[in-house]
Amino acid sequence: MAAQPMKSRWPGLLLLAVILVVLALMPLLVNNYWLRVATGALMWAGLACSWNMLGGYAGYINFGHSAFFGLGAYVTAFLMNDPFGLPFLATIPAGMMVTAVFAVIIGAPTLRLRGAYFAIATWAFAEVLIQFASAMDFTGGIGGIGLPPYLNERFFYYAMFGTAALTYLVAWALFERSRFGLKVKALRDHEPAAEAMGINTALVKLQTFVLSAVTASVFGAIFAYWVTFINPKSVFGGDITDQMVVMVLLGGLGTLWGPAIGGVTLFVVNRLIWMHWGDTAFYIAILGAAIVLVVLFLPNGIAGLFVRRKANALEKVAEKLIGGGGER
Amino acid sequence: MDLFLQTLLNGLLIGGVIATFTIAFQLTFGVLHVIDFAVGGWVVLGGYLGYYVTALLGLDGFVAIPLAFVLFGALGYLIGPVLYNVRNSRTARPELMALALTFGLFTLLRGGMLTAWGFNTRNVTSMLSGESLAVGPVIVPLIRVAAAVFAVAIAGGLFLFLYRTRYGLAIRATAENRHNAALMGVNIRRLSANVYGLYAGITAMAGVLMGAIYSVNPEVGLRYTLFAFFVAVLAGLGSVGGAVVAALMLGVIEAFVSTYVGSSYSLLAIFATLFVVLLASPKGILRRGL
């Protein structure tokens, strides 16, 4: 998909460098409120990227990604609290390991089946975790669990920035620049053919799934420490997954920068709505409408608008004809 | 023992109502090859229609049943072709784009209902509400019996339609092999629209019944989507006959967990069962899944 003509490389790199410099200097440029918004935007861009690893590159839709975000958050919260009192950094690997184990348990049997079963299994898993975390004592039940407060906005900004940057670097290296990425895309585009080429599709899918889950857990860990208080709804809630799905679809499924574009756009829209109307159910309706509209009219997302070259004009027309019938 | 019988009967009655919309759900999957996340949304919309029929028109809640079929059947008929187009479009994974579409539709319905009607729960009231029937030692709320009777009637009508009419034959043929059905002169696109309309109408009718037994609010849609998935997984996606058995099992499991363990654990139990079945026997316990 990303066959890059040589000449268009330098402007892209320059733009990337400018963005990185601006992001690195962000704490000096804006006040604390907007720094929090930027921290959140980076988190969502990273989360969307982690969802995209499996959903976009491998073509398996995970409707319970919040489960892994929440696992990271809860492991950190659990280990930083009293009987253990571990330092923050030590809890992250623990969260990653727990998440990886769960990802293998869910992924190994269901990734062999049609995508729909996997979607249901992941969705059910996230809901089980909500119910479980709400019912148990050691998770603080429905009331949630607090963490030792650490009020240093810059620390959290740079933590999210570093993690998001690393996430995109890994996604770029693995999915755009390696044999592994080719295998993943091959199985997405035609699984039986990929298998016939000797690709161990079950293993590749599982590896992608675990990577995607573990990445989300790191963001969950930072998020928990950042907001200092979590409850089952705030980290396992379906709305978190909804948001990631919309971000990736909006930005462009299976592209490197799509999730970043979609993530930042949607998060800023979210904050603006929140500033003007407060916490409203209306946002959920907007999310739903956004998914529907993007699927119908922009199946390649915002990034798809830029990748498109003239050679694809014919394909575009064909798609218009098919998709245009969707207006009924 | 009385409690046991009571719970069993309650579970079977609820299971009967669940069966109506899960049969339609399976049929839709068979024909359209789409897992409809929006199923819970249709149930809740049906429940609200039942509520408004009582609250605004002052009629018995069950009057809403035919109304729900017409109204949401028409809406489904309009959505059907859109879904069909996405499912058969030339994107990399049309199956998943269609799944995303119904997911978006579900989120849109939920958000729209929350915005319009808020978090308050509503009841569908009927002249049977509050009455109950004593069968030996077991006392059954009459409204549940009525709901189950309606459910059996709806499901019976659907089966008659499927197995005794030419159009039903076309639907079954399409579910079995759409390519061959198309060769026999079935217009798959139009048939898909009709099936989605039929399904949306039936699901909304079941929603009226559900609203009469429990109460509705926009958030419970999730629960009915889960029910449909549970049945689909237990029966195997697309298996219509298995759906009846699985729905009755679901009703019984839910009733027993609510009675003997606690109602807050019933969802957990359902999810856990769903999950174990997915892991152990992913094509359904009857191994009939597609």
UniProtKB/TrEMBL annotation, chain A:
Principal location class: membrane
Keywords carried by this UniProt record: Cell membrane, Membrane, Transmembrane, Transmembrane helix
A UniProt-annotated Pfam family: BPD_transp_2
Annotated membrane topology: Multi-pass membrane protein
Transmembrane segments: 12-29, 35-54, 86-108, 115-135, 155-175, 209-227, 247-269, 281-307
InterPro entries: ABC_transp_permease, LivM-like
The UniProt record lists the keyword ATP-binding: no
Protein name: Branched-chain amino acid ABC transporter permease
Places the protein is found: Cell membrane
Highest taxon in the source lineage: Bacteria
Record organism: Ollibium composti
Automatic annotation (TrEMBL), chain B:
PANTHER family linked to this entry: AMINO ACID ABC TRANSPORTER PERMEASE PROTEIN, BRANCHED-CHAIN AMINO ACID TRANSPORT SYSTEM PERMEASE PROTEIN LIVH
Chief location of this protein within or outside the cell: membrane
Cell compartment(s), UniProt: Cell membrane
Keywords of the record: Amino-acid transport, Cell membrane, Membrane, Transmembrane, Transmembrane helix, Transport
Species of origin: Ollibium composti
Lineage: Bacteria, Pseudomonadati, Pseudomonadota, Alphaproteobacteria, Hyphomicrobiales
Family of the protein in this entry: Belongs to the binding-protein-dependent transport system permease family. LivHM subfamily.
Record membrane topology: Multi-pass membrane protein
CDD domains referenced in this protein's UniProt entry, alphabetically: TM_PBP1_LivH_like
Residues that span the membrane, as ranges: 12-32, 39-57, 63-84, 96-119, 139-163, 193-214, 226-253, 265-286
Designated name of the protein: Branched-chain amino acid ABC transporter permease
InterPro entries (UniProt xref): ABC_transp_permease, BCAA_transport_permease
